[in-house]
């Protein structure tokens, strides 16, 4: 196969199959979409996409047209419903081989990693497993995925990526070989985020929190902290953007709205629901402070990597107040790009918000520093090049073992 490089040169490149449980479009799972898109100058990329509900409100986006424009091949019409993982992998493999010939590598994104493992075996290709959060902690030894991850751990040519250092530590503790397990940050395209502007001190303060509703995101912590904060900053509003990704979490929104009413904050807290990702970006850019008070829930075992919402706020020049949780401190440096507080520290969160709210100059300084951090460490072009290098190395390792 061949692909046109960024310089316009046509050259032969490896063919890489990606598995994703989400449709391949900008709103369903933006991080996966950007990751695959960033590899378009390195490989012929084939995406086997699923139908899981996305994180953002869907627009009438022609994902197939966008993919074709960027040279990405998308398979979204394979009927594997009701099939076992091994049978589904055989069905997908037969179609992929018929349409694209031999495959050089398979990449499993998030919860699709188990399916990607079976597919890689069918294709006699190495697998790169890309972990984002829950898949690197609660899934590793769970009943649903644990056995597959144990087999994957023993694959001599598999490579493993985690979006943050804390997830990589978890993977290595589980037994993934350290020489093939790496941090791979999610990247942002900075062209989508205009340079930060001076804070607008003439309007009431706008705080924003972006994320799906589940206990570990800390929405209740945010609301209770805001109740303390607003006493000193009347007129401020807190905007909650996001939806419910799992049916068992639907009651959380009802419970949170009831809490807001009990605290008498109905006029100050806005539940905005899902919206398209470009709409989210505009809302974040027009905010004064972003909040991410993630917490560890022992009985659930969920631990975040680096929430994408934090990176988007930093790219927009919006200072972040967050908790010392998971991979968050790898992006938000205390007293440089934002403020960090301990998990569950409601009063500490309120004090941090108040400190930033009272000092527009400090908000501006933290915002600009956050933008620089994203430019230097979370730039999508650089991260794509790094991921491409690791895929090529994995292909070499696999080829070497086949020659032994």
Structure notes:
The chain is an alpha/beta fold. It folds into 2 domains: 2-187 and 379-403, 3-Layer(aba) Sandwich (Rossmann fold); 190-377, 3-Layer(aba) Sandwich (Rossmann fold). 38% of the residues lie in helices and 16% in strands. The chain contains 13 helices and 15 strands. The protein has helices at residues 30-37, 63-69, 85-100, 113-123, 146-153, 165-174, 219-229, 250-262, 277-285, 308-315, 346-357, 360-377, 380-403, and strands at 2-4, 10-12, 15-20, 44-49, 73-75, 105-109, 127-131, 159-162, 181-183, 206-210, 237-241, 269-273, 289-292, 320-323, 338-341. It has a 7-stranded parallel beta sheet, with helices on both faces. A 6-stranded parallel beta sheet has the order 12-11-10-13-14-15, with helices on both faces. A hairpin with a 5-residue loop joins β1 (2-4) and β2. α3 packs across α4 (113-123).
């Amino acid at each position: 196969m061949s692909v046109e490089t960024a310089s316009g040169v046509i050259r032969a490149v490896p063919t890489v199959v990606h598995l994703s449980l989400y449709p391949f479009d900008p709103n369903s799972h933006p991080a996966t979409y950007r990751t695959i898109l960033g590899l378009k100058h390195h490989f012929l990329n084939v995406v086997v996409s699923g139908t899981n509900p996305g994180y953002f409100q869907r627009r009438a986006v022609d994902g197939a047209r966008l993919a074709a424009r960027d040279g990405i091949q998308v398979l979204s019409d394979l009927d594997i419903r009701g099939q076992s993982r091994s049978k589904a992998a055989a069905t997908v493999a037969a179609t992929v081989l018929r349409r694209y010939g031999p495959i050089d590598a398979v990449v499993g994104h998030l919860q699709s990693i188990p399916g990607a493992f079976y597919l890689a075996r069918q294709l006699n290709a190495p697998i790169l497993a890309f972990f984002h959060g829950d898949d690197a902690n609660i899934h590793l030894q769970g009943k649903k995925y644990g056995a597959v991850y144990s087999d994957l751990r023993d694959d001599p040519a598999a490579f493993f990526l985690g979006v943050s250092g804390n997830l990589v530590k978890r993977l290595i503790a589980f037994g993934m070989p350290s020489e093939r397990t790496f941090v791979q940050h999610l990247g942002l395209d900075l062209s989508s985020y205009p340079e930060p502007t001076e804070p607008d001190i003439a309007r009431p303060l706008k705080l924003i929190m972006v994320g799906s509703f589940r206990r570990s995101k800390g929405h209740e912590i945010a609301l209770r902290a805001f109740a303390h904060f607003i006493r000193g900053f009347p007129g401020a509003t807190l905007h909650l953007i996001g939806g419910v990704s799992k049916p068992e979490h639907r009651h959380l929104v009802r419970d949170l709205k009831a809490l807001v009413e009990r605290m008498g904050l109905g006029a100050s807290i806005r539940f905005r629901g899902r919206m398209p990702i470009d709409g989210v970006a505009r809302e974040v850019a027009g905010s004064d402070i972003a909040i991410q008070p993630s917490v560890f829930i022992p009985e659930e075992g969920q631990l975040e990597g680096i929430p994408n919402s934090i990176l988007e706020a930093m790219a927009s020049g919006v200072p972040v107040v967050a908790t010392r949780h998971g991979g968050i401190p790898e992006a938000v440096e205390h007293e440089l790009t934002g403020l960090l507080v301990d998990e569950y520290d409601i009063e500490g969160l309120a004090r941090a918000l108040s400190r930033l709210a009272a000092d527009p100059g400090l908000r501006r300084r933290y915002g600009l520093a956050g933008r620089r951090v994203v430019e230097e460490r979370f730039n999508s072009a650089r991260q794509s090049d790094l991921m491409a290098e690791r895929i090529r190395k994995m292909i070499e390792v696999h080829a070497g073992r086949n020659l032994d």
